[in-house]
Amino acid sequence: MDVLLDPLFLARAQFAFTVSFHIVFPAFTIGLASFLAVLEGLWLLTGRDVYLQVFRFWLKIFAVSFAMGVVSGLVMSYQFGTNWSVFSDKAGPVIGPLMGYEVLSAFFLEAGFLGVMLFGMNKVGKGLHMFATGMVAFGTFLSAFWILAVNSWMQTPAGYAIAANGQYVPVDWLAVIFNPSFPYRLVHMVLAAYLTTAFVVGAVGAWHLLKDKSNQAARVMFSMAMWMAAIVAPIQIVAGDFHGLNTLKYQPAKVAAMEGHYDTHRGAPLILFGWPDNDAAETRYAIAIPKLGSLILTHEWEGEVKGLKEFPRQDWPPTHVVFWSFRIMVGLGFAMALLGSITLLLRWRGKLYDAPWLHKVALLMGPSGFIAVLAGWVTTEVGRQPYVIYGLLRTADAVSPIGLPGVAASLIAFVIVYFIVFGAGIFYLLRMMGKRPGPDDLHAPAAEAPIRSAGIMPGPAMNERGVP
Fold it and tell me: 368-395, pLDDT tens digit by residue?
């Protein structure tokens, strides 16, 4: 109970809550923008109307998801000034420009071409519209690039100096941006976004195949999504392995918590399940495979893996959270790879669209990408504790000098508003996904209905200039 009345804990809970709502939208739109670009390219190359049907179906969903992501991101950023003003002051010379670059390059690029992408297919020509779609997709990648640069610098700071006033100031921007963990985090996150989108698209395709297995648009959705799962999920496992090696080098305490190791081992076991006990400094009820932990983490049977006892207890991350979130992420990753492998076999046998049990499994796996992304971010962010800038600035020293009532009131307000507003938005997205894809999408305005309903474009009683 005392923890719940701690302003620091509530400030952390508020940021965790808002960023968790926010991250699911970029994780979806990054992959969906690329999916739309591929669909439009296939339509232009083959002339098959089914690709245009699927393009228009998902374009409406992208428009709403993109808008929700922008809104949730704007709200989240204000907390740097309200709850984390000390962090903003000390890290502002590094963090501020990077976030500014994200707005100037990525967001402006997305916003600049989004209108053409949504409403310009019959106005600017096929080639220019394809270019606009590609620019929106590239903009979503740029956004991930800059945000991951910020987060990676907080995980593995480099290229900075400490000024006389205690601020962290950049001395080498290339070292700041391309810090030691940045390439691994960027690849891991972008692949996670592609998988997240693939399993949502696959689930929607499976839902409509269960209703009508002859639906050509649903077949295209399901087939393309399962190709992505079969190809990208194994690559993601390899990328995760490289990311783990990097984390072991620069954040060994985090890896010790992820693996549940308290003692340093040569030939460390891989603990599949157990219950970390910080008081006893051991993982109780452990189910482990001998030596496999060292093989995975060091690529040597007798490689040394440091345990938490090697580090001061006050520097231990919250072990239970990191231990279990890591297993959720890894478990879902292997489940995705398994489903992708199964679809390859059924595709080879010509049964991809004639296996209702497979479609039901794919439907159940629809949210798996979101859950894995959230579990991964919990692992990396909670595992960084007790630091907000690893090894430099403790979280307790970065929080604003704000009292309990202020933090508690804003947290409660966020919870209420988010569940109402974003709950309604997600319900609307699900309704759009449940609408049967088909030839009607060829003639419907690309994204007019959801955008008009949000009051962003003129209604039917207005002309193009918004004049009645």
Answer: 999 999 999 999 999 999 999 998 999 9
